[in-house]
Amino acid sequence: MFRFQNIEFLWGLFLIPLFVLLFFLWVKWKNNSLKKFGEKNLLLKLMPEVSAQKPVLKFIFFCMAFVFLIFGLANPQIGTKLEEVKREGVDIIIALDVSNSMLAEDLSPNRLERAKRAIEQLVDKLHNDRIGIIVFGGQAYTQLPVTTDYAAAKLFLSTISTDLIPTQGTAIGAAISLAMESFDFKNNSGKAIVIITDGEDHEGDVMEEIKKANEKKVLIHTIGMGSSQGSPIPIYKQGRQAGFKKDREGGTVVTKLNEEMLSQIASAGNGIYVRASNADGGLNIILDKINTMQKAEFGTKIYTDYEDRFQYCIAISLFFLILDFIISEKKSKWLAAINLFEVKK
Description:
- The protein is α/β, with parallel strands linked by helices.
- It folds into two domains: about 1-75 and about 310-335, no CATH class; about 85-300, 3-Layer(aba) Sandwich (Rossmann fold).
- It has eleven helices and 13 strands.
- Helix 4 (about 110-125) links the parallel strand 3 and strand 4.
- Helix 6 (about 170-180) packs parallel to helix 7 (about 205-215).
- The chain is flat and about 85 Å long.
- The N and C termini lie far apart (about 65 Å).
């Protein structure tokens, strides 16, 4: 298991593009200043020992030293001791709609991104509970199996987009069915499915899947993303908005939140329905409900001992700093003596 103990230091890597920009501006200023003294070919003859390549090489060494210094400050660690830790919690599976209608912008910045932020906030509030993520559109897929690895949950969450599901639709029934298959019913922990969707154009026999969940005492909560007034569905090409989705008659398609259907699903699943807003993603209310569920003890293997590896990064950083220090900006004498293009008289 590899991790950074002080991951916040990695933000320092964003200074590298700034260094590159400043170096480029310095080179440009230097060249413009030299032009004031005469033509470039003449100046090169007057300054035969000046190297145009070595400043670039020294800058590369400086950047490498900075990168490994940042890694050293972040303190990379390797797990050396794996132990099974007993925890007590519940199992939660988030079923997230990734159909194109979730790109509607009646929630800021859009329905999908607002849902992802709410899920991330939920993960931050979990302690001993296990969480899994399912994405669905016209079909349902497991994005993250049920786990206590909250860092992995955030990582997988960040990769979710509408491009994950090629088939459009809102297969809520398939999402519930896949969630039921993902639970481990050997333990007695409380189990809940949280469906996050706008509920539009839902497919499949949802009520039949809810009955199966009721038999296993799995609660089903729903969160509605969007507004009853609706919003057009933007279309993106190469990362830029290229208009809105049109119907066959050429009119703009407006996607609306289907609150009635989501309320029926939550009621049939012995859960609660919450409508999301820009201020509240709805998961806080559902989390309060989940915390009242029966918790069960389960074992999970985690690394309890880590060894620091910062010293290797610091050593590499010092190596590049020394190279940067000892390399002169002048041409090497033995290289300067070589002129492959010299014209002999």
